[in-house]
Amino acid sequence: MKLFVSGLVNVETNLRIRSFPVTYYPIDYPFFGIKSSVSGAGYNILQAAKTLGNDVTFSSIIGKDYQALRVTEALDKSGQSRELVFDAIESTPVSVVLYEPGEGGRRQIYCDLKDIQEQSIDVGVVANAMNDADICVLCNINFNRVLLPVAKQAGKIIATDVHTLNDVHDPFNRDFMSYADILFLSDEDLPEPPDKFIQKLKDVYTAKIIVIGLGADGAMLYERATDTVTTIPAAAIGGVINTIGAGDALFTAFIHYYGKCGAIEALKRAQIFAALKIRHDGGAVGFPSEEQVEELFRTYVF
Fold it and tell me: Which of 184, 197, 227, 260 has its CA at a distance of 20 to 30 angstroms from the CA of residue 36?
């Protein structure tokens, strides 16, 4: 499958802490507990999709600084073209993730976007890549806003993940939700139970698929074709190290499998994909192959 993926890429530092809340002490020594790597929602989706065997064209915005060199080196190492990765800002976004070890998997993210929210992708430059794609994955960042009507006019399936949401009419995410055919979000900041919130979303927006990630409780799926809501439990296979990037993994795997086996079966496989991924430390690492997912899927009972 051909995907056009446009989204954030940043340099992410993961810090393993003892527990939440963080107790003050002047210095700590978490040996092998600090790791810095290239990540960001767009980059995570890119790497997950490529690992599953998709043909991906990637677009993003980076800076003109040292951190940008880390990004371009990572893209080159993975064999990904950076023709549509534009150095349009001075400083590349960075993030710091505090995470708690163990099965609970709680994490706290600090994301410094610099001035990237003031930018837009040049539609004329990326239009051909969008036209060639089967699905346009447009992450909810300002520079993608101008691409939404272009993808829709071209008749492309639009997939987006708005992450945390506490208002059906959220002004920042409203455009992304309005154009989405496949809409993902997390339950972490919802103002009410997910079953009630998903009903409101489907009444306001036209997405064919809406998925709310429920963390350790799995995910809730709405299918407009059947007007049904289904909850799929998480794949409880253990070995959790860091849950950062779990949502990106779930989202990407669902997109990959959706055209192959339908929404419910796709979400089951996506749960396995995410469960295998969070056995690794870092948002853009640990993605399993399709063969690894299928091997576990054949024996796992949901």
Answer: 184
